[in-house]
Amino acid sequence: MTDNLDRRTFLAAAAGVAGAAWIRPQQPTRKTRLILLGTGGGPRPKKENNATAHVIIAGDQLYVVDCGDGVAHQLVLAGASLDKLRHVFITHHHSDHNADYGNLLLLSWASGLRTPVDTWGPPPLARITRLFFEMSAYDIDVRIADEGRVPLVPLIHAHELPGPGPVLRDENVTVTSALVNHPMVTPAYGYRFDAADRSIVFSGDTTFSDNLVQLARGADVLVHEALYLPAVDRLVARVPNAATLKKHLLASHTSAEDCGRVAAAAGVTTLVLSHFVPPDDPLVTAQMWIDAARRHFTGEIIAGRDLMEI
Ligand SMILES: [Zn+2]
Ligand SMILES: [Zn+2]
Fold it and tell me: How remote is the CA of residue 94 from the centroid of ligand 1, in Å?
């Protein structure tokens, strides 16, 4: 509990403020925070978890990695302030990673964002951004006129990555990308964030990737997508395009066992499994995911859950 919270709690109690109980002690937090916003793989909306999205909070600013359905709402549930959005990174243009990219920008602006946001990802990110604003022009213009908001479009700077390598460096983090292997989506990127206190890597969607192993070398945390092979047949049995979907899943993603191999080869401290495929099979427990990755990795393994902070 911080001194500040102690004081607030004391003052609230001393004043007999109704509802003072909402002031909860907070866990001591690291300077650079990682929160999983959505841990389900695939674009199909699910009860159990949201589509892929994560946020790093550093220096009071938000660095969002992937924008699956519901990312803005998940940020609110995580206690983040949308007006602190600073950077958005898209790993690749599958809809479970970008469906709410434009909405995140629009809804952050509607929540008070007045400062620049840089967005990063593969082409056609600039076109996606431009067309989203064109689609949303009516609402944006009305709110500027009606509510006195600053114009949104000049705040947003979309950067299409020309290839792997350095992405940006600011006062909080250095960001580096690597090409990962996610047929048929090319290019697809993984991202590494190096902060003063920790390093965090996101695999994006990929098969076992040597590039990712290099990118994640010695990192504190590797957030890796994960496929549970024994359950794939149950997953695809629910859809009409079963054969094609199964082929895509096996050719484009990484089994939980191989996530352990990547983590071991890269020498990371903590492996966080996320982007679960299947995302909502009740027969596959968190422990089963961990056990699968454990075969090849002796470090810490966490089966991610939405809104988990790591
Ligand atoms: Zn995906
Ligand atoms: Zn994908």
Answer: 6
